[in-house]
Specification:
By secondary structure, this protein is an alpha/beta fold. It is built from 15 helices and 14 strands. The protein folds into three domains: 126 residues, Resolvase, N-terminal catalytic domain (Rossmann fold); 123 residues, Hect, E3 ligase catalytic domain fold (Alpha-Beta Complex); 151 residues, no CATH class.
Length: 471
């Protein structure tokens, strides 16, 4: 078994110097029979910023095929980050790589230690806010914010049923639970029958899913960690709601167990018939052979978003590998279009603006994932999420954050290279050469970043594609 040390200067490491932490790590390896493979240091620079020791650790682990036989040793769990939130994020990121974390100061399970520390922190935070005015209103069951579909705010700030909307809510639950339709098919049925959302729009998978998860329909008002049972009339029985949540959870568990794969052209592909974006879709099928054995396969393809979420447009799809390879060949001059014939879109200023916007979008997605992780930890601290479920959900978030971190690093490098038009042209030529000559050696995030560097969009029709280059 190999061990890797990770130490931080001037952080929660019990006041130990880097040298003392290193000696403790080597002594731990000697006593427990571990091979000390490497050590990474997080040093505080003169400007107060940290040098990328953790980033180097992640890159080192990714290159090792034997990660399952590797442990990361830290002085304490909180020494993984500058604060408890960062320590939690990094712990689950390491767990997503299949690496075990060992704390020298505490022999307990790091996940249990993390939850205990977070529970203590959450209790203190809620204690300071318990007298807040909005919380006092929530305790009384008074409505705060916009009421969900099926309800309106009554004279005493309590929820009252809206007859027409409530029938739509009950219909959605019936389609999902008793008719056995999936979320996408429920949205399709509503759109085909002319049923509209409260704002008069079309239904999507997200709006249907949010309704199916909303506990307000049980007659329970929930806000700011406060639950007020029987605060208003229920629309759905407790038994039906429980069965719906069980079905939703089983579907989420299946998806969580699948290995996440990047759709390299995500955000770049557009349907040539309706003009809407095409999104990556994964489908898993199982069947039984004549000999009684079971077989399964996963199919990945791009499909028009209008078709996927709202069941509009026709069934225009392209297999993921086929479309991505066709685009690569086109950019390399190997496809049906020679590179000079591909039109360009936009201008120099637009490229820099889009590069900066892409960095902001990636940072926003990372921020949202951090918020999801905090929500899961808060739910576990309040006993509403089991430690096993917390581990499963948070490890999935950690894996997605690592992928986004790499994409953000690529996007920031690209944005910095946009200082002059000449540099952009040189970079585009280098990127096209990498797509042509180094494709098989590139990681999925690197391939995706190269597509984003050179492509404005790809318009897909059944008989071919039309690629637009960035200027």
């Amino acid at each position: 078994m190999r061990a890797i040390g990770y130490f931080r200067e001037m952080t929660g490491a019990g006041g130990q110097s880097l040298a003392e932490q290193s000696r403790a790590f080597l002594e731990f390896c000697r006593q427990n029979g571990y091979e000390a493979a490497a050590a990474f240091l997080e040093v505080i620079g003169a400007d107060g910023g940290e040098r990328p020791g953790y980033r180097q650790l992640i890159d080192f682990l990714r290159e090792r095929p034997d990660r399952g036989f590797t442990v990361v040793v830290v002085p304490s769990l909180v020494s993984l980050g500058a604060d408890l939130r960062e320590a939690a994020r990094r712990y689950f990121q390491l767990a997503s790589l299949g690496v075990k974390v060992i704390c020298l100061e505490d022999s307990a399970d790091p996940a249990a230690t993390l939850l205990a520390l977070w529970t203590e922190k959450e209790g203190e935070r809620l204690g300071h806010k318990v007298q807040a005015a909005m919380r006092r209103k929530a305790v009384k069951g008074e409505v705060l914010g916009r009421p969900p579909l099926g309800y309106q705010v009554g004279p005493r700030r309590r929820l009252e049923i809206v007859a027409k909307e409530s029938s739509v809510v009950r219909y959605i639950f019936r389609l999902y639970l008793r008719d056995g339709l999936g979320i996408r098919l429920v949205a399709r049925r509503l759109n085909e029958e002319g049923v509209r959302t409260r704002r008069g729009g079309l239904w999507s998978m997200v709006t249907v899913r949010d309704i199916l998860r909303n506990r307000t329909y049980l007659g329970t008002y929930s806000r700011f960690g406060v639950r007020v049972p029987a605060s208003h009339p229920a629309l759905i029985s407790a038994d039906d709601f429980r069965r719906v949540q069980e079905r939703l959870s089983s579907r989420r568990q299946e998806r969580a167990q699948r290995q996440t794969s990047l759709f390299l052209l995500s955000g770049l592909v557009y349907c040539g018939y309706c003009g809407n974006k095409m999104i990556g879709v994964s489908r898993r099928q199982r069947w039984r052979r004549r000999d009684g054995s079971e077989k399964s396969a996963e199919y990945r393809y791009y499909q028009c978003e209008s078709r996927t979420n709202r069941s509009l447009c026709d069934y225009h799809t392209r297999r993921t590998d086929d479309l991505e390879e066709e685009v690569r060949q086109t950019l390399s001059g190997e496809g049906p279009f020679a590179l000079p014939a591909i039109p360009k879109a936009g201008d120099d200023a637009a490229v820099l603006k889009e590069a900066e916007a892409q960095c902001r979008r990636l940072r926003a997605r990372l921020h949202r994932l951090d918020k999801h992780l905090e929500d899961h930890l808060n739910a576990a601290a309040r006993g509403r999420l089991s430690p096993e479920r917390l581990q499963s959900l948070s490890v999935a978030i950690g894996a997605e954050e690592l992928s986004l971190d790499e994409s953000l690093a690529e996007a920031e490098r690209f944005a910095r290279r946009q200082a002059t038009a000449a540099e952009r042209q040189r970079q585009k030529e280098r990127s096209l050469a990498r797509l042509r000559d180094e494709w098989i050696h590139l990681s999925p995030p690197q391939r995706q970043a190269l597509f984003r560097e050179v492509l404005e969009r790809v318009v897909v029709r059944d008989d071919g594609i039309r690629a637009l280059l960035r200027p």
